[in-house]
Amino acid sequence: MLEFAILGLLQQAPMHGYELRKQLAQVLGGLRSISYGSLYPALRRMQAAGLITTDEPAPRALLPADAPPLTGRRGKVVYTITADGKERFHELVSETGPEAYDDGGLFGVRLAFFRHTAQDARLRILEGRRRTVERQREGLRSSLSRTRERLDRYTLELQRHGLESVDREVRWLSELIDSERREASEPGTARREASGTSGAAALPDPPDGDPPGTT
């Protein structure tokens, strides 16, 4: 998840570590807190793999007070995606198997970079995520029907709340899928995809109180 998100952000523009951390917090939302202790080892691994490269620190540009002393506090190292990194990112955004949607956290990150994903791949990922959540919903319904009589009212309400959250996500995913299919049927979509312009339809608002992929 972290490698995918870093490559996706650097695909848009070079960034130094502090800015990357801020942008990652926005992309991941409440799904994960990114510390320098997890970010910089990931950046070092990606640099060793040739996926990213660094520029020399800007003279006299100080790092934030809470940043680790990786540059001797002389300045900010700027990270840039390489050709190999772009190829790796293209491989990742092209994946449409269960690894792209079964994990709710990774699905949320994939959704954040859907503008870089081909339209047919977007549809397969959305449909796969909907199938996953529908299975979760059936499991919750089955559990609720089996245990209803044995639960106190607070636990019962908690299970009902979980079921309602999953129901909302299924409806939200269905709206996304319908939007993608309408977009695919519009003239000019193929030309936009070929030219690299995002063909993503306007995204419906996510379910209230439930960030994408948190079920």
CATH superfamily of the largest domain, please? Winged helix-like DNA-binding domain superfamily/Winged helix DNA-binding domain
Terminal CA distance reads: 17 Å
Strand portion, in percent? Answer: under 5%
Give the overall silhouette.
Answer: globular
CATH architecture of the largest domain: Orthogonal Bundle
Number of domains: 2
Helix and strand succession? HEHHEEHHHHH
Instruction: Provide mean pLDDT, rounded.
Output: 81
- Counting helices, strands and paired strands, the structural category is mainly alpha
The proportion of residues forming helix, as a percent range, comes to 55-70%
Number of β-strand runs: 3
CATH topology of the largest domain: Arc Repressor Mutant, subunit A
Name of the CATH first level of the largest domain: Mainly Alpha
User: pLDDT below 50 for ≥5 consecutive residues: which ranges?
Assistant: 70-74, 194-201, 210-215
Biggest sheet features: 3 strands, antiparallel
Distinct helical segment count: 8
Tell me the Rg in angstroms.
Answer: 21 Å
Order of strands across the widest beta sheet?
A: 1-3-2
Q: How is the quaternary structure best described?
A: single chain
What structural keywords apply?
215 residues, 2 domains, 59% helix, Arc Repressor Mutant, subunit A, mainly alpha
In short:
This protein is mainly alpha-helical and 215 residues long. Helix content is 59%, strand content 5%. It is built from eight helices and three strands.
